[in-house]
Amino acid sequence: MGKGSQHTELMTPARMLEQLNDAIVILHAEGQVLFANQAAHILLGEEDLTGQSIELFLEHGTVMQKEREPILLELNSADQTLVQIRTWKLNDGHICLFIHPVRFNDQKENQMYALKYRMNQSHEGMVLHQAGQIIDCDDSLAKIFGYKKSELIRASIDEFIDSSYFHTLKENMKQDHDKPYLLKGYKKTGEPLYIDVLPQPYPDKDGDLRIAVIRDVTERVHNEKQIQFMAYYDELTDLPNRNYFVKTLEEAIAECRKDNGQIAVHFVDIDYFKQINDTLGYQFGDALLQACSDRLKQLLDGKNFIARMSGDEFLILQRDIQNKDEAEAFAEKVIRAFQIPIDVQDFEIFTTVSIGISLFPENGKHPNELIKQADSAMYVIKENQRNHYKIFESSITEDFKEMLTIENELRRAIKQKQFEVHYQPQVDISNNQVIGFEALLRWKHPSRGYISPGMFIPLAEKTGLIIEIGDWVLREACRQNRKWHEKGYGPTKVSVNLSVKQFLQKDLVKKVRDILQESKLDAKYLELEITESMAMSNEAYIMDTLKGLRELGVNVSIDDFGTGYSSMKYLSQFPLSKLKIDQLFIRGEQKQNQAIVKSIIHLSHSLDMKVIAEGVETKEQLEFLKGEKCDEIQGFYFSKPVAPGKAERFFSYS
Q: If you average pLDDT over each of 93-107, 193-207, 237-251, 583-597, which comes out highest?
């Protein structure tokens, strides 16, 4: 057994201990040296240590206080060598010391490690194995895995390790190194755990014996995974976040450059989310976002990658496309996915999405560039149409510059009263009599002339100016109608479109009451138009507002009916007076469009509501609507929107 060795039962064969580079000393419980390998003789500077007290070389009491915990001590030598010592109590009552000299560059690291060890109280155990079969272990290792020590002896290590880590285990067992590596294992109860394995090879002529220190690092790994999750995932939706999306997009771009492939980036925005969030609160908004993310997850396949950008915005990477038609087809698939209402906290929410698309390499060569272009395209479609998609075009960049200019001039237009209200007649189809007008906002710029509402109204919505402008339109329409009545014209009603922001004002009913009182217009001559998606977004709040307006005597109609996704339950419960068929179905001559028009007319009448068709331009359209018993119509066939003075020609004196 080496110089002065005595016989003892040791867990590890003595001949093997002699092969170790680390100093190994085995002591009697009182501190006398029973065995020391060659490395120990060299480190402690003695040719024969047997029988000597370990106190001659280090503080025995300090070492004995911390079993298995790494301790830093200076040897009682002239050069005061710094060593790291681990203490192990053997089954026969003897003490085994592992002594490792610490290099100067290692001192700080070891001190930090020792401090961390004391703070965390990590669980460690030791195992002796041969080719993956456990030969011996200590009680601490058995405790880590939840077994009795006797249950582990002769068992295969594979039985306790997750199969996905077998390769890591096998590769490290082939190597002679002392670097720790991570494995995932399972306790006897089936509970998963993570362990750090600190290997130490023990060459032996009879077989490849190895010893390793096992440390339970489950808590550390879970913390690391949580940090990684926070860095790459959105906590609310469990979707990857923008960072993860950019990383994945970079990889997809690299692949496309090799294969000359194409990819599409879809920037998806939930329509009217802010209004819903402001009305029902942030908790409801969060629940809606979770539900929307679940709806998007249903579109996942091997080619798609979905992430949450921020707020109500999501990103979708579509890989391996051949042309822009495939990108458009996928965008349509996303839009169709939201045709089904979303259940959130006992509310049935009808929402839509606006999608901007950018293509690689056509619209950009780098991740941020592609995301920016898709965002720009989404902005355009959201402001002009919603519930649709748009592929990025270079002209969009110039359009944004134009929009900034328009915004500044829009604010000036309010102050300088550049706005006008024009009126388009609404006709009773049974007798061709004008029974009302729709009030439509027009902006007459001093140098540009009339600016298209499609250009400035979305911008007014975005900036919040629409509330001030909308209030002015409502007040002006009521004032003008009252003026016509005073002239003896009529009686006729006037219809005013409400923007989303206007309709979701908590004081809307009071504001309408005040304007009616101010203009002295009877409430029955005012009709407010709201869009289908606005009406279906929040049944409880909408119901209260509609009831309040009905109590005033104001009628409310659904504008652009057929373009959203209404619930029959809501339509039957809401106090509505009329459905307006969107001109999209009137102008189209397809049989499907005519079938839709017939269905809307039948539905409206079955709910005791009138129906009006807009966008009527031809005699054929008029005759078709007459045949289907539509109640009212409006469109260029009778007149375009005109100034108040010209509108008076449609009146008949009472």
A: 237-251
**pLDDT at residue number 3:** 42
Single-letter amino acid code for the residue at 48 = D
**Residues 6+ away with beta carbon under 8 Å from 204:** 13, 15, 16
Residue 615 has pLDDT above 50, yes or no: yes
In whole angstroms, give the CA distance from residue 125 to residue 178.
16
Residue 512 · residue 502 · CB < 8 Å: no
User: Exposure string (b/e) for 142-153, b if CB count within 10 Å is 16 or more?
Assistant: bebbebebeebe
Q: Which amino acid is at 148?
A: K
**Under 8 Å between Cβ of 437 and 494:** yes
Q: How many CB atoms lie within 10 A of CB 592?
A: 9
Rg (CA), the chain: 40
Which two three-digit tokens encode residue 325? 């038609």
CA 102 – CA 503 distance, rounded (Å): 75
Token pair recorded at residue 509: 């009913």
Helix, strand, coil percentages for the chain (3-state, nearest 5): 45, 25, 30
pTM of the model: 0.45
Please name the residue ranges forming H helices in 24-165: 38-44, 60-65, 107-120, 139-145, 149-152
For the stretch 60-87, pLDDT in tens is 777 777 676 767 677 887 666 767 788 8
Confidence of residue 8 (pLDDT cuts 50, 70, 90): very low
107 Cβ contact partners less than 8 Å away, ≥ 6 residues apart: 72, 82
- Cα 16 to the chain's mean position, in Å? 57
Note whether 23 and 36 are within 8 A (CB): yes
Q: Which of 56-60, 164-168, 452-456, 562-566 has the lowest average pLDDT?
A: 562-566
Which H helix or E strand runs over 222?
A: helix 218-232
For residue 614 the two structure tokens come to 């807009």
Q: How far from the centroid of its chain's Cα atoms is residue 204's Cα?
A: 56
Q: Which residue has the tokens 């102050």?
A: 415
Neighbours of 521 (CB within 10 A): 21
Neighbouring C-alpha atoms within 13 Å toward the C-beta of 34: 19
- Identify which of 40, 8, 12 has the alpha carbon closest to the alpha carbon of residue 24: 40
Could you give the 3-state DSSP secondary structure of residue 357? strand
pLDDT digits (tens, 9 = 90+) for 128-148: 887 788 888 888 888 999 999
Give buried/exposed letters for 624-639 (b at 16+ CB in 10 A, else e): bbeebebbbbbbeebb
DSSP-derived secondary structure letter, 563 = S
Rounded Cα gap, residues 157 and 403, in angstroms:
68
Residues 141 and 151: their CA atoms lie apart, in Å, by 12
Q: How far is CA 551 from CA 436, 524, 577, in A?
A: 21, 11, 13
Query: Residue holding tokens 């950019």?
Result: 246
In the chain, what percentage of residues exceed pLDDT 90?
30
d(CA 260, CA 358): 17
Q: Are strands 82-89 and 95-101 parallel, antiparallel or unpaired?
A: antiparallel
- In this predicted structure, the answer to whether residue 17 has a pLDDT above a threshold of 80 is no
